[in-house]
Amino acid sequence: MAAPEAEVNTHTGKLEFSLDVPFPSAEEAIIALRSLSPDREPRRGGISKQLSVSGNTLYVRWSADEARTLRVSVSSFMDHLSLVLETMEAFGPAVKLHT
Amino acid sequence: MTVVIGFEGSANKIGIGIIRDGEVLSNPRRTYITPPGQGFMPSDTARHHRAVILTVLKEALDQAGLKPADIDCVAYTKGPGMGAPLVTVALVARTVAQLWGKPLLGVNHCVGHIEMGRLITKANNPTVLYVSGGNTQVIAYSERRYRIFGETIDIAVGNCLDRFARVIKISNDPSPGYNIEQMAKKGSQYVELPYTVKGMDVSFSGILSYIEVSSAHKMLSSGQCTAEDLCFSLQETLFSMLVEITERAMAHCGSQEVLIVGGVGCNLRLQEMMDVMCKERGAKLFATDERFCIDNGAMIAQAGWEMFRSGHVTELKDSWITQRSLCLFTTWRTPWVI
């Protein structure tokens, strides 16, 4: 997992943070993406979070007005991510669907 | 045969239940209990749920003697409830639904209580009193919807009981309401408390401030009444208000059945008072015990079973949780009930 420090984007003036999470397979990365995506950040929180998958890596990008909201969002994301990983470990691997 | 697993965790209980065509195969549950004087906060409650949810899930499958492949649908509470605990449970439900290749289904917590109550008691078309820590509503079914006839205009009845318990430092184990009910049995003196019914609605916040800041608290500290007397008086006042609005809804709907659901619904004094009213009207009371009244996974599985059988599923992208109440539209009941 690669996590650079939060830095200020000189064009937008916003704080940015990114996280790259490698999974054993692309399939698992997509399951995590679909489990973690549906719940949106609070509308007036001055924060946005983008999730995407490429290959077997889950990419997360934050952009925030304040360090406090960024910290809360990243910390709660880490809790959510570790729960999804534990669930995969305990109840995986994914069944192969014949579709 | 249709097998549905239900995940519930909208408040301080985390429960996972499995239902196969009306039969409860398993229904394990854990409760987050806070020290006396303290309520449960969203982030602490979510941490509790995260710590135990996978153990509870294993128990649910083991007790039912089922493998993931035997399950047809994964139901979870979409809302209403506390945000952080709801997300915790939804995350696991979404992940296992994908791992097992099963459809996902978001269920309204309130509909879960009603459908479980109907399953267990066999009540056909009851007027429903839904009373818990977060909800107080009188609900009746008409033309494909569960319609709210009356509700609290401020705090829920269970919230009033919980906060009263915090004021006089009653234990939260197993639940504040249960401990108030036991203490109320030893109360002898009735302390008059504000009785606030406004049409079909009720209000409880005034009762709480009356106890917190005014004469009731002084009576207690000066020894004019005991904590047991206050428990007794509080129950009599709150439950009379609930019986009054339930009776009014019954008269409006011409209903001859009452079903009490929600955590406060396992209070035997509430059931007793409601039963007196029902007998006077020639109506029948239906209630369940703490296994099914209090939040549990099987109730979400049961509502999910009805929804799944009538063609519902929730796409992953639409599986966001909501803290607010949802539409009470049904597709599984006949439009009109005589």
Automatic annotation (TrEMBL), chain A:
Keyword Transmembrane on entry: no
A single GO cellular-component term on record: nucleus
Keyword vocabulary terms for this entry: Cytoplasm, Nucleus, tRNA processing
Main localization of the protein described in the UniProt heading: cytoplasm
UniProt superkingdom: Eukaryota
Compartments in which it is found: Cytoplasm; Nucleus
Biological processes, Gene Ontology terms: tRNA processing; tRNA threonylcarbamoyladenosine metabolic process
InterPro entries the UniProt entry points to: CTAG/Pcc1
Assembly: Component of the EKC/KEOPS complex composed of at least GON7, TP53RK, TPRKB, OSGEP and LAGE3; the whole complex dimerizes.
Entry similarity comment: Belongs to the CTAG/PCC1 family.
Functional summary from the UniProt entry: Component of the EKC/KEOPS complex that is required for the formation of a threonylcarbamoyl group on adenosine at position 37 (t(6)A37) in tRNAs that read codons beginning with adenine. The complex is probably involved in the transfer of the threonylcarbamoyl moiety of threonylcarbamoyl-AMP (TC-AMP) to the N6 group of A37. LAGE3 functions as a dimerization module for the complex.
Protein name: L antigen family member 3
UniProtKB/TrEMBL annotation, chain B:
Localisation: Cytoplasm; Nucleus
Name of the top EC class for this enzyme: transferase
Sequence positions that bind substrate: 130-134, 162, 177, 181, 267
Pfam families reported for this sequence: TsaD (PF00814)
GO MF annotations in UniProt: metal ion binding; tRNA N(6)-L-threonylcarbamoyladenine synthase activity
Residues annotated as binding a divalent metal cation: 109, 113, 130, 295
Protein's name in the database: N(6)-L-threonylcarbamoyladenine synthase
Organism of provenance: Gouania willdenowi
